[in-house]
Amino acid sequence: MMPSPCTGACLLDPRTGLCRGCGRSGDEISAWPYLPEAAQRALLSALPARMASRPPFKPVRRP
Q1: Quick one: average pLDDT of 31-59?
Q2: How many angstroms separate the CA atoms of 12 and 5, rounded?
Q3: How far is CA 30 from CA 26, 40, 53, 58, in A?
């Protein structure tokens, strides 16, 4: 198993559904320990492009 790409800055962006820290979706985060190593490697290779193309984070202000 590959080490998790988690950065400890876990916050799913409601607009994209991706974690602001690592770029994975909630489903990908929960499936990580069960993915075959080839699938983990494929996901790891996709993350830099996801992180580079994500929209800027805008905190949600609640009343």
Answers
A1: 91
A2: 15
A3: 6, 12, 23, 25
